[in-house]
Amino acid sequence: KSSVQTIGEEQIQNPYTELLVLKGHQDIVRFLVQIDDCRFASAGDDGIIFLWNAQTGEKLFELHGHTHKITAIAPFSSSDVTEEKTDLIITASADRTVIVWDCASGRQVQKVSCFHSTVKCLTVLQRLNVWLSGGSDLCVWNRKLDLLCKTSHLTDAGKIYLDNFSIFEVIFRLSATNNESEGWNIVEVKRLVEHQDNISSLVSVNDLTFVTGSHVGELIVWDALDWTKQASECNFWDSSVHPDVQPEIKLSQSPHETSVQHLTSDQEYVFAAVGKGIYVYNLQMKRVIACQRTAHDSSVLHIEKLSNRQLISCSEDGSVRIWELREKQQLPAEPVPTGFFNMWGFGRANKQANQAAKKMQENTPVYFLELVGDLIGHSSAVQMFLYFGELGLATCSADHLIILWKDGERESSLRSLALFKKLAQNGDLQLKL
Asked: Positions of the WD repeats (predicted)?
């Protein structure tokens, strides 16, 4: 029997009661990127990029240019004050090419085919008007796709950290050259060797802090200025750390079950997808304050914090779940029994200890994650999602589909308003006749 928490059909706190199914992809859809408030792009193993309207679900453009699966995608808006703002996206593929696309026209702006291996990650540094590609080389490019500089001999660059340019276990510093030409230097400054295994996820908390997670379930908080370790957590699977959670009997734990697949942060907490579970780590207290050790039936692939106290997670089991971080109601501490201990003079000490423990208990709130929504629509692994606020939620899956989840009450109100406007217009037309 599955130990995953369930919710009834009456999902009172779940606003997403309507859905739009977007079809077009012919293979796994792995990536969704937001272009602006109402547009997003999707890409995956079929090598095609689609641009969509998040409000209506309308397919805006179908972009063909790659011959193999898409391995990375990133939005890139021009910041040149002399030009009109242009929304672009950059895509990398297993065909060892990178293409820049114009989102307004769907046209291919430029293509780069000089890579010696597959580009596995793309990061745009908007304030510097450059972008970085990572594969066997780390390359820095300008908006015209001129190669500014590069460093080679990286074994497998899988993720670029925006502020400190960290490629898994290596941190690089990107700096401008002293001359007036558009030149940059990349210098290796630090290797993160504290993890016992490869770093599988990374998130920037703020300008001073970033957090990494490894395949063996370690979470490390780093100082972003001198790259020293501030705190760590490796007890995600220790039942003694989370006594309120029913322990699971297991003969062994594979790395897949303990791997930190994804991290996100709201500067106060770090939210970690670890194996099948999700964990809330308080950065100030330096400990896990809430968890769902079995949030899904399979590995959690993506997790995001909403503007309120809610989280959304998606999994290989095809589900998308909404959680709310809530505070437990504390029960009053039981008094220490008198009698034998008082006979030997221990009563006062125990009373003081009990009062101190009670005070600590009262001052330390206990949190838990409650399931408030379960979105069932995909038939295979949900790779990731995008949250558009009032416009809803977009999810992509290995079932080749994209689903737009809509607030049912809001959509009903919009339809009623549109109907009243239409009736009013028809009434005015009849009066004129």
From this structure: 22-62, 63-111, 293-333
